[in-house]
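Table S2 (text version). Query chain:
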Amino acid sequence: MNGTTVTSPKLDATLPGSVNPIGRWLGQCLTLAEMELRKLRHDPTELLTRAIQPALWLLVFGEVFTRIHAIPTGDLRYMDFLAPGVLAQSVLFIAIFYGIAVIWERDLGLVHKLLVSPASRAALVLGKALSAGVRGLSQACIVYLLAWSLGVKMNWHPLALLGVAMTVLLGAAVFSTFSLIIACIVKTRERFMGIGQILTMPLFFASNAMYPIAIMPDWLKAVAHVNPLTYEVDAIRALMIQGGVTAYGVGADFGVLILALVALTTIGARLYPNLAR
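Corresponding structure-token output:
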């Protein structure tokens, strides 16, 4: 990529704490994540280009709907209500197309090398999920700066910032793992792009990112309640904004995201070898 040579990581290297199975497994996950992040270091312009979309949502959509008061958001100004949704949307858009990189690695023969390494399939999947989470954190920094400049009432408490970071990591991991599963099924970039575009906007609009669930029709409420993005937005809104409220409880939001990640990682670990066939 960009003239750089991507080599397979030394997943069998001895790492601190890797003398026990759990430490070795975590070391493999971190090694995979570090390999993925090296690609970002070689092409940092990706961070700038990805900042355009959240800026447009906040500057255009947010400013307009804040002025016309078209969406009931209780005691929160609409811009304050929207900013967490835009952050979650940015993370979703990064993570949901992560499968393209996996297909690209298959075409270069990297997937075969990873599969014959000592790393477990779950470690391979979670390593990529962690790297998506770090990319999501870069988006969080951008959205925080944009929201602060637009007068959003931010919660700067260190524990709240840590909570938002953890939510972003979990959300990115969930949707990047979901993306990997799709890549393992369709196996071609053309098919993946079509499916990714079909899924992204329904996931976004069938959540509480742009409007409260209370104003949705009943059938859309049912979809929103099983959409992991809804719980990601709910946690971010409660932690990011002064006076932000949670519909489910931050603990419940984290629980849903963790359960979704465990389930998707299990499925992804089973399907990942299919990508090399």
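Notes on Table S2: Residues 29 and 127 are 4 Å apart (CA to CA). The radius of gyration is 19 Å.
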